[in-house]
Design a protein that fits this description.
By secondary structure, the protein is an alpha/beta fold. The protein folds into two domains: 296 residues, Aldolase class I (TIM Barrel, Alpha-Beta Barrel), CATH 3.20.20; 138 residues, no CATH class. The chain is 31% helix and 17% strand. The chain is built from 13 helices and 18 strands. The strands form five sheets. An eight-stranded parallel beta sheet has the order 3-11-10-8-7-6-5-4. Strands 9-13-12 form a three-stranded antiparallel beta sheet, with no helix packed on it. Strand 15 and strand 16 form a beta hairpin. Helix 1 packs parallel to helix 2, helix 2 runs parallel beside helix 3 and helix 5 packs parallel to helix 6. The longest helix has 27 residues. The N and C termini lie close together (9 Å).
């Protein structure tokens, strides 16, 4: 195994080991601070992070606003307070070592306001902003305002080229690095484009090499590329280290820090990670963001899969083969199905899926009455956690504050489920089955890596030391 040397990133020398940011209350100031103290780049999530009361307990994020706009303002306030709390905790733990980055999703509600509010109150603490989930053109402007480095997350050289030409070339000196996130292997939201097949993963090396060639054209030959998604052991990436063709490269670890003593996820979640098998992480497009995402294929995901499979097209008028009348809703308003689809619908109703919900695509999905009620309540309680939400039809842009489309019952409230699993009772197994559990596709390796045998859970420092051995 090659010796891992420090590289220049964000104006200082650090180990080329980056903690991946995992949103809603998973990548905390505690993990970030310890990772930075080990000489690498720690990352806390600024996506609706926890803030704390005087006893040091997380403050529950309850919403009292009567409208979505009012609840959205509450969410932004919670997010700023939480981000500040995590940054301060990370800085205290790190003792000024390494680097502290804030991770945000550009598609999260109020993203620009949130990161601006955090940076205003943490000057000299946060060293960089990592940002993906969309095309964050204004990221460079924010970085320049606060004189911090920025790290866009991309999944192709083409995406980076568009960002550079439109915005980033104006703040070239503050670009600390570019995160290449493998869209087939990373956990959470993924950057698959419409031209890429989710069932046909591509090798990252030629894609990263293409990114480096574009960066060199822009004078960024020495700006680090941070490889993210699918990174477990450095010995498997030895040909990337000190490779003159790729230039300076760092490695981001998102999944492995979940199973550390400092990781804030419930004990039941940590234990579940040990039992995952290859294929247990499912690449899907159920997210209300509209992006692909990778999550554990638990009961929550399986219910969404079933909901989407129990779907038929309808016509508001009899036309073509859509000739069978069917009543929808309490008033049984007529729509028209094909005869084969009508037969399927009767089978679903016999199985208890009696409520038909309209989608924006002129289809009906069939769910049990209790699920229909849950969907309705979640849509009504929307707090605007995204810039636009396909599940609730929220948009943070006025004057209407909706995205102009019908709310889509094939999706879900992502804020609710991520808060639920992150703050579940430590012994609550049901919370793991019935909420969204993001994970990278290598999560099954917890069960096979001898480092974690006999129930061993490392500290962040022990994990970093293990990674440095190449294992």
């Amino acid at each position: 195994m090659k010796l891992i040397n420090a590289i220049r990133m964000g104006g200082t020398d650090v180990l080329p080991l980056v903690e991946g940011g995992k949103g809603v209350a998973v990548s905390s100031g505690l993990t970030c601070g310890h990772w930075a103290a080990g000489g690498g780049v720690g990352t806390f999530s600024a996506v609706n992070a926890d803030s704390y009361d005087v006893q040091g307990q997380p403050i529950p994020q309850h919403y009292s606003g009567k409208t979505r706009r009012e609840r959205h303002e509450e969410l932004v306030s919670y997010a700023i307070d939480g981000g500040v709390a995590q940054a301060e905790r990370a800085y205290e733990i790190s003792g000024g070592k390494g680097r502290i980055h804030a991770n945000i999703l550009w598609e999260m509600g109020g993203a620009e306001r949130v990161i601006t509010g955090i940076l205003e109150r943490t000057k000299g603490i946060v060293n960089g902003i990592t940002c993906g989930a969309g095309m964050p053109y204004r990221l460079a402007d924010i970085a320049a305002r606060f004189n911090v480095h920025y790290y866009p997350i991309v999944s192709s050289g083409r995406a980076f080229s568009a960002l550079w030409r439109r915005a980033y070339s104006k703040a070239a000196d503050l670009m600390g690095g570019v995160v290449y996130e493998d869209p087939w292997l990373a956990g959470g939201h993924n950057g698959l484009s419409n031209s890429e097949d989710p069932q046909k993963p591509e090798s990252p090396y030629p894609r990263v090499l293409a990114l480096r060639k574009i960066m060199r054209e822009f004078g960024l030959g020495e700006t680090p590329i941070i490889m993210a998604g699918g990174v477990w052991a450095l010995e498997e990436w030895e040909d990337w280290i000190d490779n003159p063709e790729l230039g300076p490269v760092a490695f981001q670890f998102g999944t492995r820090p979940l199973l550390t003593k400092e990781s804030p996820i419930p004990a039941s979640w940590k234990e579940r990670l040990r039992s995952l098998k290859p294929g247990d992480v499912f690449l899907n497009k159920f997210s209300p963001t509209g992006f692909y995402s990778s999550a554990v294929n638990n009961d929550f995901i399986q219910e969404l899969r079933g909901r989407n499979e129990r779907q038929v097209a309808y016509s508001p008028e009899p036309v073509g083969e859509h000739l069978v009348e069917y009543g929808v809703g309490a008033r049984k308003r007529s729509v028209y199905l094909t005869a084969p689809d009508y037969a399927r619908v009767k089978d679903w109703e016999d199985a208890g899926f009696t409520d038909a919900l309209r989608t924006p695509d002129s289809t009906l999905v069939f769910v049990a009455p209790e699920k229909a009620e849950e969907i309705h309540v979640d849509q009504v309680n929307c707090m605007g956690c995204l810039t636009q939400c396909r599940f609730s039809n929220w948009s943070q842009e006025g004057p209407s504050y909706d995205n102009g489309r019908k709310a889509d019952p094939r999706s879900f409230c992502i804020q609710k489920t991520l808060q639920n699993i992150a703050h579940a009772n430590p012994e609550d197994e049901a919370a793991l089955d019935h909420n969204l559990m993001f994970a990278g596709h290598n999560a099954f390796r917890f069960a096979t890596d001898s480092f974690y045998s006999n129930g061993f859970i490392p500290t962040v420092r022990e994990l970093v030391e293990r990674i440095l051995t190449g294992k």
